[in-house]
Amino acid sequence: MASSRSLLVDCHTHIYPPSYMDLMRKRTEIPRVHTAPDGQEKVILLKEEAHGDGSNSQGRPVGPQYWDRAEKIKFMDTHGIDVSIVSLANPWLDFLTPDEAVKAARDLNLDIQQYCSTYPSEASTSSSQFSPQTSNRLFAFGSLPLVPGVETSKVLEAIEQIKSLSHVRGVVMGTRGVGKGLDDEAMEPIWKALADSGLVVFVHPHYGVEGAFGEQDNGHVLALALGFPFETTIAIARLILYGVLDRYPTLRLLLAHSAGALPALSSRLSSCVVHDPTVKDRLQHDFRYYLGQMWYDAVTYGPEELALTERVVSRADKYEGKDEHLAYVDRGVFPGVDRIMFGTDHPFFPPLDGEGTRWKSVDENLDAIAGVAGWSGTERSKVMGRNAVELFGIEL
Amino acid sequence: MASSRSLLVDCHTHIYPPSYMDLMRKRTEIPRVHTAPDGQEKVILLKEEAHGDGSNSQGRPVGPQYWDRAEKIKFMDTHGIDVSIVSLANPWLDFLTPDEAVKAARDLNLDIQQYCSTYPSEASTSSSQFSPQTSNRLFAFGSLPLVPGVETSKVLEAIEQIKSLSHVRGVVMGTRGVGKGLDDEAMEPIWKALADSGLVVFVHPHYGVEGAFGEQDNGHVLALALGFPFETTIAIARLILYGVLDRYPTLRLLLAHSAGALPALSSRLSSCVVHDPTVKDRLQHDFRYYLGQMWYDAVTYGPEELALTERVVSRADKYEGKDEHLAYVDRGVFPGVDRIMFGTDHPFFPPLDGEGTRWKSVDENLDAIAGVAGWSGTERSKVMGRNAVELFGIEL
Questions:
Q1: What are A214-242's pLDDT values in tens digits?
Q2: ipTM of the complex
Q3: Structural domain containing residue B234
Q4: Is residue B55, in this structure, part of any structural domain at all?
Q5: Which of B271, B300, B326 lies at the smallest CB-CB distance from A361?
Q6: In what residue span(s) does the Amidohydrolase-related domain sit (chains A, B) (predicted)?
Q7: Which residue does chain A place closest to B180, by CA atoms?
């Protein structure tokens, strides 16, 4: 690798540890892992995947890239990724009973700590120039037993466990909380503990939206390209409207897929709030202010979209309080870049035809960072890795 | 008015003609108009409005601003709007039987033609400097009887009727087509007729998304700020994936609320398409190309969001065909401004406290146009009115 390149940290990269694969293989309903007639194991996560035709039928191929650490490192080396912060992929523990989820979270957190902290298990094969401590190429988000009916104390115990694990620096979380979403009184002690912990909370979608995609067969496109970002957008809008960021301003939320459609609809949300008698006096600030309190991955696939994320974060402090403010004017200052971090969504979106060794989906996101108009080299290097080093406290 | 200001044309402004109000008053189910205990007539359009408390209960106040032309002109004069292109507000004719819808469309198209063409009915009170022909301050989108079970020939007859009406320059359309959405074989002859007609098709949401907004009372905020744009985004993504813009490249679609989340998710859509075996070979161009084939209102409420709409249209021609292209680099050239047009969404989003005479929601959208970084005065004047003059063939 060229020594002049930027440190590259992947904040959005998933695994299914072997124990999790076993949980999914045992299931007969979605989500599940099954062996297709051709002998290929496939994971069915979405209802849309339970039918279909030809190569697209019955889910997506699932193989060692989901659980084999050597495959993750190989992917990282191919793309020049120095450090990955891995997280359990959706649907996490959502399908388990409370007791099962509590046990599974505890075991998976130990698994993922071992996955990260014992690398390399043999003589170093690391090709990173930035990691003299080669044990520091892998970090993780832990899992919480967030299922309906779980005792709050069990969730708080999981947070305590995670705080004790050297390589687990955050938690991954879906949008349902303990069943009613992230705008639920039952989540309050959990938000408080997470805010106090300093852990990064990676909010990620799984369920999409219901009954909106019609009768034509569009494969996974609409569920993944629209359902996922819509789910995240709704969940975070609800969280903000419930006052969670007013009460816990130190909460560190990292939003998957650059928060979906939240940046593009944040001024519309602001306007709808001030025009609605039910909501207009509820929040301490203009809705747009809260976008500056959160972090975003750079998984947008295009530079114009990524630029929007940066601009809505950059303008956020103009909207402190509820006074009228002049529109933000772009003067070539980009404070929002401090809140955005490269991600790949590995091992999802592999090349369809296996062409080359680099993944198109990864290059799209690298090109997006390279293509944002106006950013300096320093700003791009923050997004590529320096921001993650700071946020997760990564020791290089 | 200052003579140096730009011509201002409002392409997104709604009416409920008296005959439509009567249809809504007769109904006992949503959508309906009823008289609240305080004597105020209210319209209930969304399920979220059928409950609620206090001033927010049982819908939104509906009054002469919905049907009285003098009120529309007064609103236009207050905000310096020279020309309005009015459209029937949602939910249009969706709740009628085919026979009822055919008759209602025919009558409403005559009503709206009269509404526009007979102004001023008495001595001119126009304050516009741009309309020596004062009969040309109002134009319209007509209505089509797009309901399940309607005969295609009846829809085509409505298109013929509209073509014969001097002040009706387009049609307003929801996202359900004749029941199954805009990606429906039954829509093909209708798309063909609309493409051949040169009429502008204003696509507007009404239904939002189902079951996603949780248990907290957030008034109308989530349904309007998120459900509406999500519905439009899904509808147009489905239309593109069905190949409608490949088959009818001359179709002139104008997308409400700047196409919702479509600009922000267009690169994600592109990436999901090329990674999906079901869809990857279906379209003639990269998904992003099609964004350059459509028109957008400027109803974004913020300059950064509006800039994104312009940028994704500006970059569209880079994505002709399916070759790899370098990321679009912003060089201060803004061809996308030709496709964006000012709108107000009047008479929705009135000031809550009646303060002042100008509407905050209108000023937010004017400020958005004024605040986009990089646009010249010429570019802003296109968005404010010149584009609409050209697209709708308005004679000044």
A1: 999 999 999 999 999 999 999 999 999 99
A2: 0.94
A3: 9-392
A4: yes
A5: B271
A6: 9-394
A7: A214
